[in-house]
Amino acid sequence: MTPSTILAEAILFDLDGTLIHSTQGVFNAWEEFGKKHPFVDGLEWRDVAHKTHGRRLAETLKQYCNIQDDELPQTIYEFEDIVISCGGGPDVLPGASQLLNDVNQITPDRWTIVTSASSRFASAALTRCNLPFPSKGLVTADDIASGQGKPNPAPYLAGARRISNQDAFATKCLVIEDAPSGLAAGRRAGATTLAVCTNHTREFLETRIGDEKPDFIVDNLEHIIVQVLPSGGLSLTID
After folding, report:
1. Do 230 and 208 meet the contact criterion of CB atoms below 8 Å apart?
2. Would 191 disulfide with which of 65, 109, 175, 229, CB 3.0-4.6 Å?
3. Ramachandran bin of 15, using left for φ above 0, alpha for ψ from -120 to 50, beta for the remaining angles
4. Alpha carbons 123 and 116: distance in angstroms, whole number
5. pLDDT grade, residue 2 (50/70/90)?
6. Helix (H) / strand (E) containing 51
């Protein structure tokens, strides 16, 4: 396969499913929650886990478990504690540590992480996985207004603003994601999108339509090499 080259001014990384993997922990959490909070429409926990992949708990717990607003903060903590503590990770995905450390070393101000997880969970996961924290700070679920989580573009627009105050800077960024909802959020923000085949096959990602269809697809982050251009921008080669 001929290598592809992507030019971007900055990289906006998703977290879970892109840099780390906590799917089994998330499955455990939804299974436990289903025992205490019956799901709407008689759904099973596996159905809910797949429907909510890549979205914020503040929205999905309300939608599928009827959790009320005043209960959400504590309920989110309980859910994320299960993900972290009940087996199943989080673990670093192939190539993530090398790529993040490379980017952080050569251009520390040109990347950040945009996640649907809370700041509490994201910080714990990065620490547990020994991954660097972006110098510009994370964009987490705590930073985004109610109803504005992925696939809304607001998270990635906020991530772009962390790096630059230029108008429409998001259009100069590369979003790296695994979930269709996150790919749609990146596309709607105006960014170029790169999908990682973590939770979905290449065939599945290739057949997405509309905003969910990625511009590029890679099996994992081991296949990406990043370099800084004389202009200060970034060149990413996918082998």
Report:
1. no
2. 175
3. alpha
4. 13
5. low
6. helix 45-51
Where do we find the tokens 């992480």?
113
Share of the chain above pLDDT 90, in %: 67
Residue among 155, 160, 132 nearest 20 (CA) = 132
**Contact, 183 vs 211, CB < 8 A?**
yes
How many angstroms separate the first and last alpha carbons of the chain? Answer: 7
Amino acid at 121: F
Question: In angstroms, rounded to a whole number, what is the distance separating the alpha carbons of residues 224 and 239?
Answer: 7
* CA–CA gap between residue 63 and residue 164 (Å, rounded): 34
Q: At what angle do helices 154-163 and 180-188 cross, to 10 degrees?
A: 60
Residue 35: per-residue pLDDT: 87
Question: C-alpha distances in angstroms, 238 versus 2, 8, 58, 191?
Answer: 9, 14, 35, 18
Show the tokens assigned to 109.
């101000």
133-161: average pLDDT:
95
pLDDT at 88: 61
Residue bearing the bigger pLDDT, 87 or 31: 31
